[in-house]
């Protein structure tokens, strides 16, 4: 196992400390996270990789405040999530966190423009209109604004979901296999978008993926196995990530 100690003054957009998550009780219990500490620095694109069942989605859900830890702490910026009551947690998720899921999760009855604005409309605010206007161009959907999701390709729908995730200028966007349902070309477009959002607008993205090519778009990859953080890799390439993943395969 390789451990890297990174001394940095970059603030963290999100982090978990000694995160343990146990689902169920007794014989049926599953320890999905077995003591993970990891930070996601501001302005960085981090990929989370690891075998199926290694705890990637659990880590993301707990870090984002969608689920609670059994022990340990999760923080968005300086806010420790377990210190918040339900109302404050809901507000934090709404105002400071964006999400992109594998199944695009758009509202079918709303247009593209309405879907992008949905988090802001729910918050009862206008948001930053210039930012949203620029986002529409970044995701290349200006000529589709009045279409419904069912009239769009999968790649276009996921680009709407990316725009929606960034609409409220959140501190951090969490994406769980955002390219899992896309062909490779649409996947590349969505990954390029996430990368540009980080590099051009200093946003923070944390993305779970199975795909070494997708992970290579990130600034850093963190590897999970059996609910533990087992490695981190700076400046990943698809080949380096693939080699690292092969090392997980225990010879029988
Ligand atoms: N709601 C749940 N109830 C019980 N066990 C769960 C629940 N969610 C996840 N698990 C278990 O926790 C472990 C980690 O699951 P998790 O979904 O985090 O893995 P993952 O790395 O995202 O896997 P995949 O790559 O297949 O999406 C698995 O053993 C899984 O079966
Ligand atoms: Mg998962």
Automatic annotation (TrEMBL):
GO terms, molecular function: ATP binding; ATP hydrolysis activity; transmembrane transporter activity
One cellular-component annotation, GO: membrane protein complex
Keyword annotations: ATP-binding, Nucleotide-binding, Transport
Cross-referenced Gene3D superfamilies: P-loop containing nucleotide triphosphate hydrolases
Keyword ATP-binding assigned: yes
Protein origin, superkingdom: Bacteria
Residue stretches making up the ABC transporter domain: 14-251
Annotated coiled-coil segments of the chain: none
UniProt-listed Pfam families: ABC_tran (PF00005)
ATP-binding in keyword set: yes
Protein's recorded name: Peptide ABC transporter ATP-binding protein
